[in-house]
Design a protein that fits this description.
The chain is an alpha+beta fold and 313 residues long. The chain is built from 9 helices and 12 strands. Strand 6 and strand 7 form a beta hairpin.
Length: 313
């Protein structure tokens, strides 16, 4: 497929909605600007210097024409603003049951990690018709994941997680790329976005082969890094228990209340002194510059698998 067709392809209903909105706004701009350009040219020709024409002011004004010329575009622009805002907000309202895929960006490649354990470099396979939620982290500098066929783009920022979701409807192979200048080889930081039927996606998962799920890999890492010595069921150290932690509201020593989501757990691993849980001593060592973002994502997946606040209700 040519690069132009890659950009014109619509792989989701969101992409089609964005294209319709863009076409409508473009049409409105043309309808408003075309008369101005044409009349400017016509008046410049008709009333040019030396031309004998009547230059006296028009005695009667068409007030309704002037009012409509202002009100109609204003109402249309407000409508387009509301529609654009709705599309934007929808991108950050992840539906329940979405397939969770972790993303790590680094110079100059994309790494995608499926919950079953399959890992991909510069390729992302997803099932058609199913919501997919991406949790993204950067290993080095600011990147930006851009999938033109979905009309979505989200920055991937060092030091925190960013999120976006989509539902691809049209099976096929599309382009993905980095839309943020990230270094000398920025132009080659791209790959393929592959939408498959649910049956083909299931076959691909089986064919990709992995011994451990992402949560199981996180459990192995949890033990090998010594985390179980403090957070395990038989630990003697006074440390927060991780069972049922995910999604729970946590009181901090400084009086704040936070939700134990993926971002909080990541920060607790890499920046443990930034948000200390109330009632616990600040003895957690930092794993910054020890664990990579992909390893942190595995630990987060493991802690999430231990149950969350909603599951205990």
């Amino acid at each position: 497929m040519s690069p132009i067709l890659h950009w014109l392809s619509e792989a989701s209903t969101h992409a089609a909605a964005v294209d319709r909105l863009f076409a409508a706004v473009t049409l409105l701009v043309l309808l408003l600007s075309a008369p101005v350009f044409f009349l400017t040219i016509a008046f410049a020709v008709r009333y040019r210097r030396g031309r004998l024409v009547d230059r006296r002011p028009v005695p009667n004004r068409n007030v309704w024409l002037e009012v409509s010329w202002t009100i109609i575009p204003f109402v249309l622009l407000v409508f387009f603003f509301i529609r654009a805002t709705t599309l934007f907000v929808d991108l950050y309202q992840t539906p329940p049951g979405a397939l969770q895929i972790d993303v790590v960006a680094k110079q100059w490649m994309w790494k995608f990690q499926h919950p079953e354990g399959q890992a991909e470099i510069n390729e992302l396979h997803v099932p058609a018709g199913q919501a997919v939620a991406l949790t993204m982290a950067s290993q080095d500098v600011i990147h930006s994941l851009f999938i033109p066929a979905l009309r979505i783009k989200e920055d991937v920022v060092p030091g925190r997680y960013t999120h976006i979701w989509f539902k691809a409807d049209e099976p096929g192979e599309y382009q993905l790329t980095c839309a943020e200048f990230c270094g000398t080889n920025h132009s080659v930081m791209g790959g393929h976005f592959i939408v498959m039927t649910p049956e083909d996606y299931a076959d691909w998962l089986r064919g990709s082969g992995t011994d451990l799920s992402l949560a199981a890999q996180g459990e192995a890492l949890f033990r090998s890094r010594g985390c179980s010595g403090c957070h395990g069921p038989s630990a003697t150290v006074h440390a927060p228990k991780l069972e049922g932690l995910f999604g729970k509201t946590i009181p901090l020593q400084d009086g704040r209340m936070v939700t134990a989501d993926a971002g909080y757990i990541r920060d607790s691993i890499l920046l443990p002194q930034a948000a200390i849980a109330a009632g616990y001593p600040p003895i957690m060592p930092t794993y910054q510059n020890i664990l990579g973002e992909d390893e942190v994502q595995k630990l987060v997946a493991y802690i999430q698998s231990l149950g969350g606040a909603k599951e205990q209700q």
